[in-house]
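User: I'm preparing a small set of examples for a lab meeting where we compare how different chains pack in three dimensions. I only have the primary sequence for this one, and I'd like the structure in token form so I can line it up with the others. Please keep the answer compact; I'll paste it straight into my notes.
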Amino acid sequence: MRYPQLAAFSRQEGIIRVVGHRGARGVMPENTMEGFDFTLSCGVRLLEFDVVVTRDTVPVITHNHRLTRSIVRDAAGQWLRGDEPKVADLDWADLAQLDVGGLDGSSDYGQHFPDQAFLYGAHIPRLRDLCARVAQPGYQDVHLMLEIKSDPAELKDAAARVRVVDAVVQEVRAFDLAERTLMHSFDWSLLAECARLAPEIPTSFLTQLPQNVADAVDADEDSAMPDCPDLTAPGISPPDLVAKAGGALWCPHYLDVTAADVRRAQALGLLVAVWTVNEVADIDRMIAQGVDAIISDYPGRVQRRLLAHGVGWGAGPAV
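Assistant: Understood. Below is the structure token output for the 319-residue chain.
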């Protein structure tokens, strides 16, 4: 393979990879060090997470461009009220005081994850915090699926793209993690900027067909706002478009993909990682379709289904 990190995301004989979505969002606070540590402790060595950049150009791990009332508590432990402030309008010091260790169970978003632990004192991590953790001895097999969030207000701002991508790439390189990282996004122009600024890091192209947006568990969340070709046009093959754009990995929503799509992508030399697969029947279907990797809010659930099929995920003894 051209990129050594792709091996960690690649299906092998008797192995399908498991990727923890935002750590393990179904059971632990998402995009937190506590969630990542839990996921790693379960033998899942591939982490998917989201990165946004602050006003003082610090890449932080959080999904939305605005701080979300259903997730964020202030220093006094109270849920945020009023307008949700934008991360890009705040400095890192402002974010460091906030608590993201639980969900407001009365919110639509909180009701999607009734099994998620509620912690006190969990904070929004900087990208460098996670990089520092996985750069340590004992974590050398951990790989990062790093999603840079595309700001809808700056989709056409080339300078803003460069600023964000450069800040992220500098952090990854500072911890010598380029060969253990994928750059991951719905924004195809942003991925082109990633390839230009960091040619040693492969790109992973997220896609979702419009008819299935309502099926995502993303109430109270920013829209993906993809900047990509029209995937609904007649005769369009998303894997072919991803390959033409220089992608190494195609990451479709699980409702959008068929076994034929998987075969076509793999024939083009692409890896296929499906998101976000949480229900047992859907996990089983993705296993049957021969995908390379399954991204899930419940990585333990995927592990259990893989074991039931006589398949491993690349950690621990062979099945």
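A couple of notes for your slides: Residues 4-68+127-308 form a domain with the TIM Barrel fold (CATH 3.20.20.190). The longest strand covers residues 46-53.

User: Perfect, thanks.
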